[in-house]
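pasting Protein RALF-like 33 for the record, 73 residues
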Amino acid sequence: MDPSTIGVLGTIAECIAGEEFDLSSEPSRQILATSGYISYKALKRGSVPCSRRGASYYNCRPGAEGNPYSHGC
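structre below
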């Protein structure tokens, strides 16, 4: 692959490979900007939002579905 086009044709991982992951860098800001949001519970240091394996962070009840929405064609 031509090194001059890796930023255009490569994946995000390829673009930032070999670079220190600096939150002030442009790729880092782009990655952070594309995510929706993080809940306040998830931001608490050292805490696990939902300890139930496979459960949604926002619906952490026994038997709750991880993705309760159905998408039609």
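Residues 6-42 form one domain.
The CA atoms of residues 21 and 32 lie 12 Å apart.
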